[in-house]
Specification:
Layout lengths: L2 H20 L10 E6 L2 E2 L3 E3 L8 E2 L1 H12 L3 E6 L5 H7 L4 E2 L7 H4 L2 E3 L4 E10 L15 E4 L3 H8 L5 E3 L2 H9 L5 E5 H10 L3 E4 L7 E4 L2 E3 L3 H16 L2 H15 L1
Parallel strand pairs: 1-5, 1-6, 9-10, 9-11
Antiparallel strand pairs: 2-3, 3-4, 6-14, 7-14, 8-11, 8-12, 8-13
Helix pairs in contact: 2-8, 7-9
Length: 257
């Protein structure tokens, strides 16, 4: 095969594989698949594992997505991407919905519609066990790490502190472990997971500084057809205790690991 032909064939094969994986052409929930966008760097809500509930993806959100699709006679597919790309991909129609431990903020509500909230969280500070940080104001003269595009970044920004932003929670936590930063601001359940995974870290809470946040599923503005389906399922899973059970299950797994 000539080099160019080979390259063309390879590209074609890749595009075809991408299509099967993401059910493209569909891009809408009219078919029998709901394609959920996520950023699988956020345990216990979504992470990559060898044998997850949806392909290689597992976590509270992934289990919710699967049950949600199935209760509507549909199949859930997942597209994993950077957190910052999720809302753009949703607006482009590349994905049908976003489930990513995403806080339904007023700013985000300007561009997408959110489902009924399914989980309440708050920002917390992860510090070394011997740290003297006891409140958010103690971060003033410290080196702060956040994750790019997360609500934690927005909080620290609003407090007027300088910080360094990382692409992944694990990267920020490594900086902390290696003594290159003093504090990581991130969502509570994910913080628990990281503290369980790494020696010598603890969580500091400051409810007076960090408001509670509600996680919800995002759909394109005006996609009431899909939003109704999602809300019905979420309401049911909240009422019958499914979501609570999943939260307990995946949080225990996270600490047991
Ligand atoms: N709750 C935070 C936010 O909405 C962090 C979510 C991060 N989620 C993820 N899958 N990486 O910004």
């Amino acid at each position: 095969m000539k080099k160019t032909t080979k390259l063309l064939a390879m590209t074609l094969a890749m595009v075809m594989t991408a299509c099967t994986l993401t059910a493209c052409g569909g891009g809408s929930s009219k078919g029998n698949t709901i394609t959920f966008g996520t950023n699988a760097e956020f345990p216990p809500f979504e992470y990559v594992t060898s044998n997850g509930v949806i392909g290689e993806y597992d976590g509270i959100d992934m289990a919710i997505a699967k049950q949600l699709a199935e209760s509507n006679g549909m199949t859930a597919a997942v597209e994993n991407m950077e957190f910052d790309s999720l809302l753009v991909a949703l607006q482009n129609g590349q994905i049908d919905a976003v489930i990513a431990g995403m806080t339904a903020t007023d700013e985000r509500k300007e561009t997408v519609d959110f489902s009924t909230p399914y989980y309440t969280a708050t920002q917390v500070m992860i510090v070394k066990e011997d740290s003297d940080i006891a409140a958010a104001t103690d971060m003033a003269d410290k080196k702060i790490c956040v994750i790019q595009g997360y609500t934690g970044e927005i909080c620290v920004q609003d407090m007027g502190y300088t910080y360094e932003a990382f692409k992944k929670g694990t990267e920020a936590v490594m900086e902390l472990v290696n003594g290159k930063c003093d504090v990581v601001v991130i969502d509570s359940a994910t913080a628990q997971k990281y503290v369980g995974d790494n020696e010598g870290l603890k969580i500091v809470e400051d409810p007076s500084a960090f408001e509670s946040e509600e996680y919800a599923i995002a759909v394109q503005k005006g996609n009431t057809e899909l939003l109704d389906k999602i809300n019905k399922s979420i309401d049911k899973m909240l009422a019958d205790g499914t979501i609570n059970e999943l939260a307990v299950k995946y949080t225990e797994e996270a600490t047991a690991e």
